[in-house]
Amino acid sequence: MSREPEIPNIDVVQRYEYDRLDTDLHIDTLHNLSKMFGRSMPAHRHDRYYQVHFLERGSLTLTLGDQAYSGAGPLFFFTPPAVPHAFEFSEAASGVALTVRQDVLSRMITGSDNAALQRQFAQPVFVALDAVGGQLVRDAERLPLLMRMLSEEFSQSRPGRKHTLPALASLVLVSIFRLSQLPERREPLGKVELEILQAFNNLVEAHFREHWKLEQYAAALNVTAGRLADICRRLAGLPPKAMIFERLIEEARWQLIYTTTTISEIADTLGFVDPAYFCRFFKKHTGLAPSAFRSCH
């Protein structure tokens, strides 16, 4: 039996060519993205990244998951990790696209309503802001301003930027969460393999500090380790162990940049019994020892 053609996974970090060492999110104008990729993007996916495309003016046609949409700005569509999407913007289109790493969003939404947020953010969403009514009108009116503020802050190297960016991104994501509470616009994910990949990403987020073995992840997903590896390589472009290691490294980077926790304590919180082994692990994957990385940031 022949397989359907694979939908390519685009590594957002490599394609945008920004420093992956300390950038938790990326925002760019649709104009700039059109110059890089064209106004028409064929079906693709971004594993381990969330995206919000905000169209302020102009129009688009869109395939999001297995649903087709068309509309004119102001509107947004929200794409969870690994969900396939394809779109074409009109020549007059203007707006911005926000890309956030999965671990960063998970950290942002940690709290009492975390479960509800995680369920919502697993769903691809398309919302035309002019159609929003009731108590959500204020959120619809505020979203364009928040996206412009986030875009301006990202493009300027001003003091305090590393604090203002996540704060503005959190406000945007809360607005997206609220505006996504429209049952008719929430579409079920369809593909079994896509659901397995997303479930694996969620398990990694929950258990990467425990250093689960690949077989433990596979058992929790009720698949064989071989099938899980095949799904990760085909849909995410990486073997599952590399995805797990990458999550450990991202957490270590975040703690080294944003906290004053000692390297020994960071190693302990990440499940490394031996701090020296943690240092070797970190240097192997980043090219820098943890102390050197921290001094650079």
Give a concise summary.
It contains 13 helices and nine strands. By secondary structure, it is of the alpha+beta class.
Strand order, largest beta sheet: 1-8-3-6-9
Structural class: alpha+beta
Round the mean pLDDT to the nearest integer and report it: 81
User: CATH topology of the largest domain, which one?
Assistant: Jelly Rolls
Proportion in helices: 40-55%
The CATH architecture of the largest domain is: Sandwich
Into how many domains do the coordinates divide?
2
* General shape: globular
Give a description of the structure.
With 297 residues, this protein is α+β, with helices and mostly antiparallel strands. The protein folds into 2 domains: 12-185, Regulatory protein AraC (Jelly Rolls); 192-296, Homeodomain-like (Arc Repressor Mutant, subunit A, Orthogonal Bundle). Helix content is 49%, strand content 18%. The protein is built from 13 helices and 9 strands. It has helices at residues 12-16, 30-37, 102-108, 114-120, 137-155, 161-179, 192-207, 214-221, 225-236, 240-258, 263-269, 275-286, 290-296, and strands spanning 25-29, 40-44, 49-57, 59-64, 67-72, 75-79, 85-89, 94-101, 125-128. The chain has a 5-stranded antiparallel sheet with strand order 1-8-3-6-9. Strands 2-7-4-5 form a 4-stranded antiparallel sheet, with no helix packed on it. A hairpin with a 2-residue loop joins strand 4 and strand 5. The chain is globular and about 55 Å long. The protein starts with 11 loop residues before the first helix and ends with a helix.
